[in-house]
Prior knowledge:
Blueprint: E1 2-7, E2 12-18, H1 22-32, E3 50-53, E4 59-63, H2 71-90, H3 101-123
Parallel strand pairs: 2-4
Antiparallel strand pairs: 1-2, 3-4
Amino acid sequence: MFFKVTIGLYDANIFVSVGQNHENLLLSLKKNYLKISKNIFPIGNHTKARVIHFDDGSNLIELPKANFNSPDFFESLSHEILHVAFDILNTRGFVLSRDSEEAYTYLMGCLVKEIMKKIDKQIKVPKK
């Protein structure tokens, strides 16, 4: 599955690839995001997930294996979402501190909610 989440408050786009092989990921990116500005190499065999930061501020979360029944999947997803939250806020001048931590935790929660809504929508079988 491949989808995009936009966080309007920060004018940020996050692309999410779950369960795609490298070729399908590249096709999805080309179809949905024409400004690919760097080479994207295949994810390593021992890497569960990663984030790629694009020059325009967009981010890609890649999780090539999708086991929605495994806590490891959600651990990896939340780990990568936090990288994205740091990137979004740090590139806008935020510095993590006790005074700014609410912005980081709010954004992480927002990202988790929006990404999980999209995943949930795509994995549910339509009712007859």
